[in-house]
Design a protein that fits this description.
Blueprint (H helix, E strand, L loop, with lengths): L2 H28 L3 H18 L6
């Protein structure tokens, strides 16, 4: 095999692996119920309010 064929196969494998990672993250994100999302957002808002404006994290 020439080097460009190996490089192409590695690229295809990388794209496939990236797709798998994205699909897993999407499934995990969609697994939350609306109430869970609402609770998490309110918790994050409270934490951000405690840290004050302009602080990172």
């Amino acid at each position: 095999m020439r080097w460009w064929k190996i490089l192409g196969l590695a690229g295809v494998a990388g794209v496939a692996a990236t797709g798998v990672v994205i699909a897993r993250a999407e499934r995990r994100r969609q697994a939350y119920t609306p109430d869970e999302i609402r609770t998490r957002l309110r918790t994050r808002l409270e934490e951000a309010s405690e840290n004050g404006p302009g602080t990172a994290g």
